[in-house]
Amino acid sequence: MSKYQRLSLLAFVLSAFSMALFKASGWTLAYGFRLPEPPVIKVVEPTQVTTQVVTRSKGRRHTQRIKETLPARGHFDTHFASSQLHVQTHAASMIELSDGNVRAFWFSGSREGAADVTINSAIFDVTQKQWGAEQVVTGRVQTQRDLHRYIAKVGNPVPMRAPDGSLWLFYVTVSLGGWAGSSISMLTSNDEGATWGAPRRLVTSPFINISTLVKAPPFLYADGTVGVPVYQEFVSKFAEVLRLDKTGKVIDKQRLAAGGQGTLQPVVLVRNELDALALTRYAGADSAPRVMSLATTDGGRHWSKPQKSNMKNPNAALSALVLPDGKLLAVLNDQEHGRDSLSLQLSADGGITWRELRRLEEMGGLSQQLADESACLEVVEDMLQNSDARLQALAAPQLAEYVASAKPLVRSASACHFEFSYPYLMQAHNGDIHLLYTWNRVLIKHAVFDALWLQQRLSQESSQ
Amino acid sequence: MNLTDRFALSVWALFGLWLILRLPFVTRMSVTQRTATLLLGYVIAMVPVAGLSLAGALRGMLGDLSTTSTLLLSAALFTRLRFLVNGNAAPLWNARERFSVLLFISVLALLLYPFALGIGTLDPYRAGFGSVSLLLMLALLSLWFMRRGLYLLPFVCALSVMAWSMRLLESTNLWDYLLDAPLAIYAIVQTVKAMLEARKVERV
Question: Which residues in B lie closer than 8 A to residue A13 (C-beta atoms)?
């Protein structure tokens, strides 16, 4: 190399590094959380009821009006959010729209991981209290075309309200292998999810960008950047937080727990500007599996080592949220094996102890008792009707279609298998709490309850 | 299609062209035939059939290639073309330069992948999002190599760092500009091979 060439190379090296150092000097990460706007809970007044009492005295008819005050009653309703039959559905999530309605997302197809799986969405009209028709947001073929690379399957959609007010939808895409080969893609919508732009791939891992999955709702840092709780499960399983700037560009990735500790699907619960708790599914080898918990007290700069919580966990996803009064609400399979029950639990001491508020589903132990097929399908029919009032009004052939749709998943190996999994909680601005979960992998079930119901449930629990 | 996608697919197409040029029957072709074959190869690699191009299939399965891979692939393609045109088989870089880069990539891969994929709580990949320390280390390493009379590695580092500043690839992480999994595997195999050969020569 001549002296001139050496000098040219030196100039190139110095200018390249100067440019990069200038760019890196702007890479300062501020810690601290932005709290979500507290819900505006409408106080439900006691209902005044006037009843007419007709009495007869001395052959004359007297009408007496009696005014009665009935105590306000909380509401707890359930519906099915998905409506397509003879498909497998899983991994539901949701977001509140600007008009107060709720838009849900889930994946649906011939089976989990199949090439025909699509990300579907529907809107829950909070006034009419009913779900609209399903629409397809995206699928494997569309994602493949838009990302200009081979895509084998899609999964887990998670929406969020972006700092600029648009909707972002993160979802899992796999090009090679199983879910361990996942990476995250992101869609943007400027019309509340009616239409979506082309997806963008988030590069989050150095090894062929594989093994990053998303499940739980994102949160905001005080500087307006976005934290996305994610997890890896390729070589080892562990929880992480991705940090995106206001445009959705990845600017940081923070490991919450070391590999081998089995912390999957973290749910980050922001309690104040500096404190947050992360609860994770446990995928380790401990014979007494429990939800793992990690905490930060410095706005997410450092996280504690994962510790076993008091909640059982059968290697299944859980969901949780922070109530305006600081109490924590969680939905999970409160069992060490299987996913045939689902429990709504509350913690008033920051996640140290939990108590059950309601058993949302309970089919534990029924599996072997329902060896007879007709008995099993009868139970399924009852469950369907009890889950959604709309199904009670269905004609027999239509209801039979629902049962037939559930049969291949519920009925196998001369037993009746139930699964209630992948819960996703959200509190709307009016204080209502919405819950979505996988119902036997056939439908997505929705439960909604108001703050009053919760309050009454708490009082009942306290008095017991 | 945006520039990033076009670039990423083109690099995989370059890989395809390099493979074509290594086929024995291509060696026997005339310049016109060879040019036509290369053009056809590029079109086949880039044009989507049923929504997916051949380059897109490779991209999906093996990810985007790094700036270093792009440079080495371009150099290999150029050397092969030059050989086919005028018989000049001289490599662009001497063995020492080449070995320094392969060793560097191998060391980076061994430092990065095991930890990034879950060993311990330290994740070196995080530094690639904009750590000044990582950049300073690379800058000092580049200058040290230049002082030792090795110029390819400083060029590789500077090119990767510049591409990262300009965000030429889909990734926002510097590590993805420096190396990729196929390059890492190639580098480790070649480095081990070179070391074993060197030991053999020493014994003789």
Answer: 139, 142-143, 146, 154-155, 157-158
**B181, amino acid identity:** A
Q: Which residue of A has its CA nearest to B121?
A: A258
Q: What is the ipTM of this complex?
A: 0.91
Q: Which amino acid is at B160?
A: S
Interface residue of B141, B170, B176 to substitute, partner A, most A CBs within 10 Å: B170
For helices B181-203 and B95-116, what crossing angle results, to 10°?
130
- Residue A265: count other Cβ atoms within 10 Å of its Cβ: 25
Per residue in A202-241, pLDDT (tens digit) is 999 999 998 899 999 999 999 999 999 999 988 889 999 9
A449 and A129 in contact (C-beta within 8 Å)?
no
DSSP at A39: P
CATH topology of domain A76-364+418-463: Neuraminidase (2.120.10)
* A302-329 confidence digits (pLDDT tens): 999 999 999 999 999 999 999 999 999 9
Cα–Cα distance for residue pair A182/A435, rounded to 1 Å? 26
DSSP at A416: E
Most B CBs within 10 Å: which of A150, A182, A301, A303, as the mutation test of the B interface?
Answer: A150
Pairing of the two strands A411-412 and A415-416: antiparallel
